[in-house]
Automatic annotation (TrEMBL):
<dbReference type="GO" id="GO:0003735">
    <property type="term" value="F:structural constituent of ribosome"/>
</dbReference>
<keyword id="KW-0699">rRNA-binding</keyword>
<protein>
    <recommendedName>
        <fullName>Small ribosomal subunit protein bS18c</fullName>
    </recommendedName>
</protein>
<dbReference type="InterPro" id="IPR001648">
    <property type="entry name" value="Ribosomal_bS18"/>
</dbReference>
<comment type="similarity">
    <text>Belongs to the bacterial ribosomal protein bS18 family.</text>
</comment>
<comment type="subunit">
    <text>Part of the 30S ribosomal subunit.</text>
</comment>
<dbReference type="GO" id="GO:0006412">
    <property type="term" value="P:translation"/>
</dbReference>
<keyword id="KW-0934">Plastid</keyword>
<dbReference type="GO" id="GO:0005763">
    <property type="term" value="C:mitochondrial small ribosomal subunit"/>
</dbReference>
<keyword id="KW-0150">Chloroplast</keyword>
<dbReference type="InterPro" id="IPR018275">
    <property type="entry name" value="Ribosomal_bS18_CS"/>
</dbReference>
<dbReference type="Pfam" id="PF01084">
    <property type="entry name" value="Ribosomal_S18"/>
</dbReference>
<dbReference type="GO" id="GO:0009507">
    <property type="term" value="C:chloroplast"/>
</dbReference>
<keyword id="KW-0689">Ribosomal protein</keyword>
<dbReference type="GO" id="GO:0070181">
    <property type="term" value="F:small ribosomal subunit rRNA binding"/>
</dbReference>
<keyword id="KW-0687">Ribonucleoprotein</keyword>
<keyword id="KW-0694">RNA-binding</keyword>
Amino acid sequence: MDKSKRPFLKSKRSFRRRLPPIQSGDRIDYRNMSLISRFISEQGKILSRRVNRLTLKQQRLITIAIKQARILSLLPFLNNEKQFEKSESTARTAGLRTRIK
């Protein structure tokens, strides 16, 4: 049978099975920062279940653990790389104060 005559048959490819991101021994907890940090984007957002390859129950537990860690200040709510420095607005107000005096 020619390949053009069988358009809907899938080619046989070997798939390498991916390891689950959470092993059975790992405990999902707000104190386990090495585990939690794997499921947060660079911006500090919680990654989706499809990206994480987690089960629904695992994703719920991860989400709860991340939120608890944020409330307890173990994780930032936003992950901004820029440190707060003196901005131009504070420099402008300082300049106005000297002119007024």
